[in-house]
Amino acid sequence: MVMIEADGEKALVYAPLAGSSFDTPTLGAALWESALLYAMPYDFAEYAKLHALARAAGTLLAIDVEAAMAQRSGDIERLLNLADIVFMNEVTYLSVFGQAPEPEHMRHLLALGPRVLVVTRGAAGALAVTRYATAQQSAFPAAPIDCTGAGDCFNGAFVAALFEGRSLRAALRFACAAASFAVSRLGAREGIPSRAQVDQLLGARG
After folding, report:
1. Which fold has domain 25-139?
2. Structural domain boundaries of the chain?
3. Per-residue pLDDT in tens (0 to 9) along the chain, 206 residues
4. Could you say which of 66, 82, 155, 203 has the lowest number of CB atoms within 10 Å?
5. From CA 90, how far away is CA 119, in angstroms rounded?
């Protein structure tokens, strides 16, 4: 169940259900044809298996971390150790690390394994670091109606931009532009923009 505040912010209520385990041969074969695997690692044992399959195939692994995934000591370190690209929002960062995201601390976390760490900050935009670069992008103006799915839209756009060879700063800007559309419609999918819409916005903003 998704509950939406008047300002567009959301709260989720969910009941995890036992699912069937993934088909290892099928997934393993798919990974050999994939550049990246994107996961939300609630089940660490399953995530560790995904990581092993991805590494065997030479496939990058991106994860979206939420506070519920790192409730015990050592959880966040284990997750970061098995990821190449890590996304989290500012609320999660504050909850897990006890401080607001800032480049020096974020870059320190890269020593655990990730190549890229990205923190979304809602109306404040986003911040990203690699071992060699830091980028910060303000949010694009938008009238928020429903933030559901905006994080997924941002993450997908960021990864797509990186795989196109864009710089960290350009990828962050592209992702923030895409997310500004995602918050403008009700529902997780209705606001996801086309590339033409994002390019038009970026062109208009200079």
Report:
1. UDP-N-acetylmuramoyl-L-alanine:D-glutamate ligase (3.40.1190)
2. 25-139, 141-206
3. 878 777 767 777 777 776 667 788 999 999 999 999 999 998 898 899 999 999 999 999 999 999 889 888 899 999 999 999 999 999 999 999 999 999 999 999 999 999 999 999 988 999 999 999 999 999 888 877 777 778 899 999 999 999 999 999 999 999 999 999 888 887 777 788 899 999 999 888 77
4. 203
5. 6
**Catalytic, out of 75, 84, 152, 199:** 152
183: phi > 0 → left, psi -120 to 50 → alpha, else beta; which? alpha
DSSP code of 131?
S
Tokens of 37: 């695997």
DSSP code per residue over 69-87: G--STTHHHHHHHT-SEEE
Is residue 64 annotated as a catalytic residue, yes or no? Answer: no
